[in-house]
């Protein structure tokens, strides 16, 4: 959450900062601000609410200067108002900071600073950092920041500037920071999309890194002052990849990007001749006696699909944990455990801390991750990148289906390596997996999309929804309910269809739409029996059926057909229909699907 942008060079900094912050709005925020230095002073402007409020404040009165830092804030300490917005400055205005994260010991530090005469303007934990730096400053900004950070405990991405120094000092622990390298100019941001309009040369900072940026380049050290080598990476994404590309919303664009994203996930990894996959993983699959999959939100549901696939194909016991609970239940972990963490951003703090807990207990670790250079990728034993590209919409679409596809390949790899999956079985499933980009493209055919849109609009004013699925598609039901909740704000619940009669059936009446995933599977007959239980109680059944299944169509009030797929890969195809149902429900209600209320793309505080 929160967004950071910094610039030093020959351009007007305000333009760079506002442009960069606009690319980070997907991270979620409640206020925005900038600080611009012109060599004589540092001017600060900040406003609660949307970035447009700040732009209106600057219109006609732009801040001039070629050095600046900007921030969009997600409130943790203190109300979302102008005063608590970042940047924060010292009393004399000479030191200015922005900060992502949480300073856990800020109260103790604040009390000590106040006892020494420091006066605070805001309610934030972040302002403590400005005062600590001021107290430590004696002419060297880098050393002052390093000294201040030695006193804090918590998570931070911090960026600092001082009126007497044409430089920006930054540091990170947990909260992500990436630098952009230009010709005679340097950039800094929380995430790559903020910088793509200016450079494709990126340097990803590691946990515990500090950096000094000036017009000529950068210098990276650790918190003890030791020089650190960080490679410049070339990012393939162009600026347009982070824009809407002609679609009404980022979410719709990313739904339609799924055939390409899936191609990128699968490409070069499938070998038709042997029925094997090459994931470039160095872990020994024969050494694992059990697997723990750890994730949050959408990634958690992808992990549930992974559990089903791995147990079926590789015959290894798997359990899936909500990352925020993992550390606190004293999990049973040993050196024979493989802990798989799943995250689009690679920065989700609950998942990151769960990863560290698993490592402390001796587990081997693997990540299913989208973002290269993220915190998790630097702490994992191995990483299976999904290569879905930047995902701007808060509600995950292409990252989810790419994660599920990655689990299909991982289950294949484990099954073949452990001898639980024959060459023939592997070849059959590999062929089905290779078909996924084409099947998803088919799922996005105009006539299918229009049919889903019509159903969504029909039930858009329902107060509640129920989603049902069985087997490998029970997680698809959970994901469908989550998508609907996230962007339409309609209350939705999901259950394994056989569980409905153990309580949820009491909810069913003539006002309740019940979305049932009843695509081709060995459990289809049982699923249709559950549909009959809904119909007997006057529930409105929305059936998701495989193409050509006219026999079961009579059991639904509305039918949505999806391309026929192998049962083991069908969650990818079926998820697309779930995404479209949620999307068109939300747009029918006039909701902002890209920035749903109370949500952020990357959750980097516990």
Overview of this structure, please?
With 606 residues, the protein is of the alpha/beta class. Helices cover 33% and strands 24% of the residues. The protein contains 18 helices and 26 strands. Strands 3-2-4-1-10-9-11-14 form an eight-stranded antiparallel sheet, covered by helices on one side. The chain starts with a strand and ends in an 18-residue tail after the last helix. The mean pLDDT is 92.
In short:
By secondary structure, this protein is α/β, with parallel strands linked by helices. 33% of the residues lie in helices and 24% in strands.
Q: Strand order within the widest sheet?
A: 3-2-4-1-10-9-11-14
Biggest sheet details: 8 strands, antiparallel
The proportion of residues forming helix, as a percent range, comes to 25-40%
- Average per-residue pLDDT, rounded, comes to 92
Distance between the termini: 11 Å
Total of DSSP H or I helical runs spanning 4+ residues: 18
Strand content: 15-25%
Low-confidence stretches: none
Sheet/helix structural class: alpha/beta
Shape: globular
Set out the fold topology.
Blueprint: E1 3-8, H1 13-23, E2 31-37, E3 42-48, H2 51-58, E4 67-73, E5 88-89, E6 95-103, H3 106-115, H4 127-136, H5 141-149, E7 154-162, E8 165-173, E9 178-181, E10 186-189, E11 201-204, E12 209-214, E13 217-222, E14 233-234, H6 250-256, H7 258-266, E15 270-271, E16 276-277, E17 290-295, H8 297-314, E18 318-322, H9 323-326, E19 337-343, H10 349-360, E20 364-369, H11 375-379, E21 382-385, H12 398-418, H13 423-434, H14 436-443, H15 446-458, E22 464-469, H16 474-488, E23 491-496, E24 513-517, H17 524-535, E25 540-546, E26 558-562, H18 570-588
Parallel strand pairs: 17-18, 17-19, 19-20, 20-21, 22-23, 22-24, 24-25, 25-26
Antiparallel strand pairs: 1-4, 1-10, 2-3, 2-4, 5-6, 6-7, 7-8, 8-12, 9-10, 9-11, 11-14, 12-13, 15-16
GO molecular function, one term: transaminase activity
Domain SIS: 279-420, 455-596
EC number: 2.6.1.16
């Amino acid at each position: 959450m929160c967004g950071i942008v910094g610039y030093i060079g020959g351009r007007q900094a305000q333009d760079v900062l506002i442009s960069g912050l606009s690319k980070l709005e997907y991270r979620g925020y409640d206020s925005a601000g900038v600080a611009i230095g012109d060599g004589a002073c540092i001017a600060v402007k900040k406003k609660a609410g949307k970035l447009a409020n700040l732009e209106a404040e600057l219109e006609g009165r732009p801040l001039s200067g070629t050095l600046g830092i900007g921030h969009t804030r997600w409130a943790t300490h203190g109300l979302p108002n102008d005063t608590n917005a970042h940047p924060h400055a010292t009393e004399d205005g000479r030191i200015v900071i922005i900060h992502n994260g949480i300073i856990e010991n800020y109260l103790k530090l604040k009390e000590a600073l106040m006892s020494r005469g420091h006066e605070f303007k805001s309610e934030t934990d972040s302002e403590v950092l400005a005062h600590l730096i001021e107290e430590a400053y004696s002419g060297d900004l880098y050393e002052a920041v390093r000294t201040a950070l030695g006193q804090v405990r918590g998570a931070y991405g911090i960026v600092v500037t001082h009126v007497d120094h044409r430089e920006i000092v930054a540091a990170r622990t947990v909260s992500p920071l990436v630098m952009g390298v230009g010709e005679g100019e340097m950039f800094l941001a929380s995430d790559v999309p903020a910088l793509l309009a200016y450079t494709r040369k990126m340097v990803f900072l590691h946990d515990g890194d500090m950096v000094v940026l000036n017009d000529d380049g950068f210098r990276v050290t650790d918190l003890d002052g030791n020089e650190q080598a960080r490679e410049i990476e070339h990012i393939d994404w162009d600026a347009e990849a982070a824009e809407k590309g002609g679609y009404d919303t980022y979410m719709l664009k990313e739904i339609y990007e799924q055939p390409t994203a899936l191609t990128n996930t699968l490409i070069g990894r499938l070998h038709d001749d042997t029925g094997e996959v090459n994931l470039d993983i160095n872990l020994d699959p024969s050494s694992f006696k059990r697997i723990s999959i750890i994730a949050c939100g959408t990634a958690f549901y992808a992990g549930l699909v992974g559990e089903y696939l791995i147990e079926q194909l590789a015959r290894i016991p798997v359990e899936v944990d909500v990352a925020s609970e993992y550390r606190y239940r004293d999990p049973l972990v040993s050196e024979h455990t493989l802990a798989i963490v799943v995250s689009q951003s690679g920065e989700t703090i609950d998942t990151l801390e769960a990863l560290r807990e698993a490592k402390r207990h001796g587990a081997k670790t693997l990540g299913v991750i989208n973002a290269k250079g993220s915190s998790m990728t630097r702490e994992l034993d191995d990483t299976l990148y999904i290569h879905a590209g930047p995902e701007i919409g808060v509600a995950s679409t292409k990252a989810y289906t790419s994660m599920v596809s990655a689990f299909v390949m991982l289950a294949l790899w484990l099954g073949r390596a452990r001898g639980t999956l024959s060459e023939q079985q592997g070849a059959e499933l590999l062929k089905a997996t290779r078909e996924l980009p084409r099947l998803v493209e088919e799922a996005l055919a105009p006539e299918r999309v229009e049919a889903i849109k019509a159903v969504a609009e029909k039930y858009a004013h329902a107060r509640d929804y129920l989603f049902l699925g069985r087997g490998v598609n029970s997680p698809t039901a959970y994901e469908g309910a989550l998508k609907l909740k996230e962007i339409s704000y309609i209350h939705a619940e999901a259950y394994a269809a056989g569980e409905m009669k153990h309580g949820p059936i009491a909810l069913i009446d003539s006002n309740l739409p019940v979305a049932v995933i009843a695509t081709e599977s060995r459990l289809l007959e049982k699923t249709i029996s559950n549909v009959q239980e809904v119909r007997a109680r006057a529930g409105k059944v929305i059936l998701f059926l495989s193409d050509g299944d006219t026999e079961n169509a009579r059991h639904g009030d509305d039918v949505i057909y999806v391309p026929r797929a192998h049962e083991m890969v069908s969650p990818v195809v079926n998820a697309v229909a779930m995404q479209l149902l949620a999307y068109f429900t939300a747009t029918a209600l006039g909701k902002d699907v890209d920035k749903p209320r109370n949500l952020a793309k990357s959750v980097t505080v516990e």
